[in-house]
Amino acid sequence: MSILSQRPFDIGANFKRLLPAQPCLLCGANSHDGICCTACDAELPRLTAEHCPVCALPTLAGSLCGECLRQPPPFDHTAAAFSYNFPLDKLVQALKFRDQLVLVDFLADALAERVTTHPDRLLALPLHATRLRERGFNQSLLLARRLSRRLGIPLLPDACERVRNTPPQSSLPWKERDKNMRQAFVCKPDADIRGKHVAIVDDVMTTGASIGELARALKQAGASEVSAWVIARTLPHDR
């Protein structure tokens, strides 16, 4: 029998099977494929349907949605890796509230695969100093650092700050979220954003109020274009 008819010897796959397995973070089964086993990874709600290029909500043929046509948000584009559904929501919550920092690279790499244009600078959605002391880290900044290294885009860790310690957006009705975020951010005079395309990195977008308010501050400071990069987008039926 010709060796051409035999299955190639996959050195990488065989070597991976020799390494110690780790428990899948979602189901607990042994995984040789990273923090999520193959089965659980396949079940993650990746945002694959056609969606509005500005806000990432589902639309026919990827056209602009009615809301973005009627009242365009301050940001110009959105890239999202997942919809905010089970079990992805549990991974995001584990990162934010249970210090599962091992998830940073996994989630950031999934977002990197959805990026189609490279901005000039990356910026993480800032936490207020009080919230940062309580949590101990800014998950958006950790995600942005990974994206910066992987994609080779400069990160601006201190260009903007959150000057109002607002209640968590998730604790408010939708109609109050825009009001809650008004004038919550300021950009520093020496921030390297004038004339630049800046991407804001965050974990979840629901109404877009937080990213929208930061995008407004960035454009007032001279940014020419602002994109929103989020791990997950909350879809209308999930709100």
UniProtKB/TrEMBL annotation:
Domain Double zinc ribbon: 18-69
Domain spans labelled Phosphoribosyltransferase: 140-232
Domain of life: Bacteria
Cited InterPro entries: ComF/GntX_DNA_util-trans (IPR051910), DZR_2 (IPR044005), PRTase-like (IPR029057), PRTase_dom (IPR000836)
Pfam families: DZR_2, Pribosyltran
PANTHER family registered for this protein in UniProt: DNA UTILIZATION PROTEIN YHGH (PTHR47505)
Protein family according to the UniProt entry: Belongs to the ComF/GntX family.
Name of the protein: Phosphoribosyltransferase
Source organism: Sideroxyarcus emersonii
Taxonomy of the source species: Bacteria, Pseudomonadati, Pseudomonadota, Betaproteobacteria, Nitrosomonadales
